[in-house]
Amino acid sequence: xxxxxxxxxxxxxxxxxxxxxSQLAICVLREAGAEVEAVTFETPFFSAATARKAAxxxxxxxxxxxxxxxxxxxxxxxxxxxxxxxxxxxxxHATMIxxxxxxxxxxxxxxxxxGEVLNQRPMxxxxxxxxxxxxxxxxxxxLVRPLCAQLLAPTIPEQxxxxxxxxxxxxxxxxxxxxMELAKKFGLTDYPSPAGGCKLTEKAFGRKLKDLLDHxxxxxxxxxxxxxxxxxxxxxxxxxxxxxRDAQENKLLAERRxxxxxxxxxxxxxxxxALLPHVASxxxxxxxxxxVCAWSRTDAFSSDVTVKVVTDGSTATRVIPRPYSRDQFxxxxxx
Length: 335
Ligand code: SF4
Fold this sequence. Notes:
The protein is α/β, with parallel strands linked by helices. The chain folds into two domains: 3-199, HUPs (Rossmann fold), CATH 3.40.50.620; 229-332, no CATH class. It is built from eleven helices and eleven strands. The chain has helices spanning 20-31, 49-58, 68-76, 89-107, 127-136, 156-159, 177-186, 203-214, 221-225, 247-256, 282-294; strands at 10-15, 34-42, 62-66, 111-113, 143-144, 231-234, 240-243, 262-266, 274-276, 305-311, 314-320. The strands form two sheets. Strands 6-7-9-8-10-11 form a six-stranded antiparallel sheet, sandwiched between helices. The longest helix is centred in the N-terminal third of the chain and has 19 residues, at 89-107. The structure holds iron/sulfur cluster. Iron/sulfur cluster binds next to α4.
């Protein structure tokens, strides 16, 4: 059923990740009489691609908010701490709702909605947690959870009779069958599994992020964006090394190097490019050159390997003698 089939009495902004629950929230809101636009967020840690696809399928206007500065501030100091990795989920979620609330106000809309289901996640979606998020987002009475609204206190649009409470739902718990049934009812066929998509929830990514935070810091957005590129090493004197895993990553690292940074790459054999934001010592630079050789395709070559070292507009070469063993560097590898 399309959005044009309902009588519109109020306007809302619904958070859309692209997952099934967030898509259902929009369908239910339309049935309850709301005109809905969607809002999603993107950072170097998660993309808006799934939300864009879902918005197109639902024929809903999508606002995409760059959330990078917010997320970095939360990663540096999360008021409610982290989940299982470097994911500040409680504060991230509340901040997203706050940002959506700001957009709601600027558009003159009536409410913000989410696809949350009561008790779907025991810690973050119990009644008390939903209430805390509503309060901390500054959206008291204007945060609608259409999938479980009948189990919660009526919001202002419901009290005013502009959002039909009888059309909102009373879902609770972890069972997915009700959502599957609703998906059929609304003709939704394309949706990703509920989990996944955010790098911050991955422990291996968390190690790299924490390492960057502890050394170069997170103020250089380019370095944050490069966290999804290459293998990472932290050498004994503090030099960070990002090593390209294929030709595309090698090209990217060379292109995104800042003026004062150092590139190390083999010239006599095929192999990876390494980006070093800061060289802490000659010993580290030598180790980085050896890492480049160890990960180069040197098996077919019996001779020493020549690498180039590009820094501050000058290029030098150095010769690295065999053997090119990876084993001695594995203890410095983050991922
Ligand atoms: S999974 Fe990622 S995007 Fe989602 S709330 Fe947690 S930190 Fe934020």
